């Protein structure tokens, strides 16, 4: 089962490598990882998407919690949450028919063309993984995908719940 873990930790050299090292040592797979400082520059927030059964995830949470730099960890998938990724994708747009189709698909998915070249469009889209995957599939039926980059998941609990120090 796919899980999204949100972690607050001290923004110190080596903090991130200790988290990643723990996953590596235990042979836990990281599907995606994002990290950035919070409003308090001394604290970073890490969002990790991973897979595993309940027992494996329970072990992951316990092991991460034992790390000295970790302030707090929560499994966002245990409750209602909002999850988003950003995708930048570069596609061929060599003729009017292809350009029209790419623009149509971009509009349907509420994406945006952020750069236009002579034969290439670069498109930006945000959403959950399913939306981004569907967008890539739709584009791939109409044109060649040259390059893409995804941010990985970030998430917040819905409502009043918050991951705070």
Automatic annotation (TrEMBL):
Enzyme class: transferase
Oligomer status and interactors: Dimer of large and small chains.
InterPro entries listed in its UniProt record: Acetalactate_synth_ssu (IPR004789), Acetolactate_synth/TF_NikR_C (IPR027271), Acetolactate_synth_ssu_C (IPR019455), ACT-like_dom_sf (IPR045865), ACT_dom (IPR002912), AHAS_ACT (IPR039557), AHAS_small-like_ACT (IPR054480)
Molecular function GO labels: acetolactate synthase activity; acetolactate synthase regulator activity
Catalytic activity entry: 2 pyruvate + H(+) = (2S)-2-acetolactate + CO2
Keyword presence, Aminoacyl-tRNA synthetase: no
One of the GO biological process terms: isoleucine biosynthetic process
Transmembrane segments: none
Lineage: Bacteria, Pseudomonadati, Pseudomonadota, Gammaproteobacteria, Alteromonadales
Claim: Transferase is one of the keywords in the record: yes
Cellular component terms per the entry's GO annotation: cytosol
Enzyme Commission number(s) from the entry: 2.2.1.6
Family according to the record: Belongs to the acetolactate synthase small subunit family.
Keywords from the named record: Amino-acid biosynthesis, Branched-chain amino acid biosynthesis, Transferase
Protein name in the entry: Acetolactate synthase small subunit
Domain of life of the source: Bacteria
NCBIfam families in the record: acolac_sm, PRK11895.1
Functional summary from the UniProt entry: Catalyzes the conversion of 2 pyruvate molecules into acetolactate in the first common step of the biosynthetic pathway of the branched-amino acids such as leucine, isoleucine, and valine.
Record-annotated ACT domain positions: 4-78
Pathway assigned to this chain's UniProt record: Amino-acid biosynthesis; L-isoleucine biosynthesis; L-isoleucine from 2-oxobutanoate: step 1/4; Amino-acid biosynthesis; L-valine biosynthesis; L-valine from pyruvate: step 1/4
């Amino acid at each position: 089962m796919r899980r999204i873990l949100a972690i607050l930790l001290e923004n110190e050299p080596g903090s991130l490598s200790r988290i990643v090292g723990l996953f590596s040592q235990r042979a836990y797979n990281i599907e995606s990882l994002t990290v950035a400082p919070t409003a308090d520059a001394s604290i970073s927030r890490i969002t990790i998407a991973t897979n595993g059964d309940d027992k494996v995830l329970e072990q992951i949470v316990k092991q991460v919690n034992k790390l000295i730099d970790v302030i707090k960890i929560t499994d966002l998938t245990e409750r209602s949450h909002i999850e988003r990724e950003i995708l930048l994708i570069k596609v061929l747009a060599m003729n009017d028919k292809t350009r029209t189709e790419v623009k149509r698909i971009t509009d349907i998915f509420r994406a945006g063309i952020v750069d236009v070249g002579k034969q290439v469009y670069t498109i930006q889209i945000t959403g959950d993984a399913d939306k981004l995957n569907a967008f890539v599939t739709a584009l791939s039926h109409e044109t060649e995908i040259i390059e893409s980059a995804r941010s990985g998941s970030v998430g917040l609990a819905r409502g009043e719940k918050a991951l705070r120090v």
